[in-house]
Design a protein that fits this description.
By secondary structure, the protein is α/β, with parallel strands linked by helices. It has seven helices and 16 strands.
């Protein structure tokens, strides 16, 4: 059978356009690109970063599980957060509840779907409470259908804490967000030394080739995702790559071409990324088999 994901995105509303000026124009072009390869489901939601709060999907059974959405990185009011929960519940009434406070942007699955990588942070569990951590791991395994949860330490100064801003997998290749140092002679990981060491160990164990994927970040604006190329979306039919109208755009495309035969769809995120995300953050894909 042919795998054919349905891609969910947030439909433009007066509120999202007011909050994220330029979203409507971006949406129209982006959805036309997605529809060349997949069915698109547009949901009327009060926020555009659907990866964070839409249900996760169990890779074994296909069942949907709704995690408890309670972000601490955004200036959401309790009323606004409740509105997101209510509208998501209405859109996915059959999703089972998962007793975990974790954002979907903080989950990246390995190529064989056996591991889920997440950044460890206080809003999920406290390090001083091993029973709480064990509960979270069991709930995530149940919801995702994976065998192992791999925790990487949250970066110092990272106020969001989403793993999809640091790593992604392109086929069997581990794409790591890096920054150029010393005039482009070397690259430095966006992850700290401890996280990089843990990730290296898993890469060696699983025989994943690690590929440095350049990120061009503005250190003065921690919220902006402008230049965060690792926030791409790979589906069964294409790879949707964020572009930021930067000189590095072409370089990143040339790197990714070496590691996939799928079409690389260049998505202009230059107007939307400054608000805090790119292609991966803006989408949630669900497997469907025909």
């Amino acid at each position: 059978m042919t795998k054919n994901e349905v891609i969910c995105v947030a439909k433009p509303t007066w509120y999202t356009e007011q909050t994220y000026p330029g979203h409507t124009k971006f949406y129209e072009h982006f959805v036309s690109q997605l529809r060349e390869y997949h069915e698109v489901r547009s949901l009327e939601l009060p926020d555009i970063w659907v990866r964070d709060f839409l249900p996760v999907q169990n890779v074994q059974t296909g069942e949907l599980y709704q995690q408890f959405f309670d972000p601490r990185y955004a200036n959401y009011t309790p009323k606004f957060t409740d509105a997101i929960r209510m509208l998501v519940r209405s859109a996915f009434p059959h999703a089972k509840l998962c007793d975990v406070r974790i954002d979907g942007g903080n989950i990246v699955l390995s190529p064989d779907k056996k591991q889920a990588f997440c950044l460890e942070k206080q809003t999920i569990f406290r390090k001083s409470n091993p029973e709480q951590k064990e509960h979270v791991e069991q709930e995530l395994k149940r919801a995702l259908g994976v065998q192992e949860i791999v925790w990487l330490p949250q970066q110092k100064g990272d106020k969001i804490g989403h793993i999809d801003g640091y790593i992604q997998f392109l086929g069997g290749f581990l794409m790591e967000g890096t920054v150029e140092l010393y005039g482009g002679l070397t690259t430095g990981s966006l992850l700290n030394d401890r996280a990089t060491s843990l990730l290296r160990g898993y890469a060696q164990r699983e025989n994943w080739d690690r590929v440095p994927l350049l990120c061009k970040l503005d250190e003065e604006n921690w919220l902006s995702a402008n230049g965060l190329y690792v926030n791409f979306l790979e589906t069964s039919r294409a790879v949707f790559v964020p572009q930021f109208d930067l000189p590095e755009d072409d370089k990143v495309i040339s790197i990714m071409k070496e590691y996939t035969n799928k079409p690389l769809v260049q998505v202009d995120c230059s107007k939307i990324a400054p608000y805090g995300g790119a292609v991966h953050c803006l989408t949630r894909e669900y497997d469907r088999f025909i």
